[in-house]
Amino acid sequence: MKTIITIFLLSLPLCLVAQQRKKGDLYLINEAGAAYTSYHGDYPYEVTYQEFIAVPSFSIYESQGISPQLHLGVYYHLTPRSAVTAGIGNSPVHFDTEAGFDFKRTLINMYHFSAGYRHLLKSEGKFIPYLETEFYFQSVSHLLSRAKGSGSSIQPEIGVIIDVSNKMNIILNGYYRYAVSFYHIDQLDYTLRPYAYGLNVGVEFKIGESLEILK
Prior knowledge:
Layout: H1 2-11, E1 19-20, E2 26-40, H2 45-52, E3 60-79, E4 82-90, E5 93-99, E6 102-120, E7 124-125, E8 127-142, E9 147-163, E10 168-179, E11 183-185, E12 190-208
Antiparallel strand pairs: 1-7, 2-3, 2-12, 3-4, 3-5, 4-6, 5-6, 6-8, 8-9, 9-10, 9-11, 10-12, 11-12
């Protein structure tokens, strides 16, 4: 994360080259960031603590936390200003719980496959703002109990592409991701609707030009 931010700051004074995007261009993007994560739904802390930590069932305090976010995606331009995308990554939900004097940090891991659409507000320039919507299909793993589950979310996003060269750009974006249905954790028999909002910094590489992938 610090390396990406350093690259971004060093690139600002450079003489940036405005880049013209064309139909058929293919880009690879690698993003990292942080999100404030929480959820809707009743999480059965008493059951979890009794079964896996063996403490009495008394008053439990819960607070949300900040989670790291990683994403690797490919973008294919249908037109100079529109692109479809597919990607993979990890977007966990993190929160802390306290039961009396006992403290436990809980992380629900969520590996995802995503698909979406990006619209550029302009097709060329040193700074290209964009709007994007992605659908996330997530495989859920509760790290305390190893219980598994699944669910899907939608993520609206707004960002800017900063041209550095003809082959590499810097990406900055902010987003809000929320579940479109309840996630069910099978072995623990409970459901939750996670949501998150955060910021990402990424690097975009052009890996193909004027490709006829979708005719």
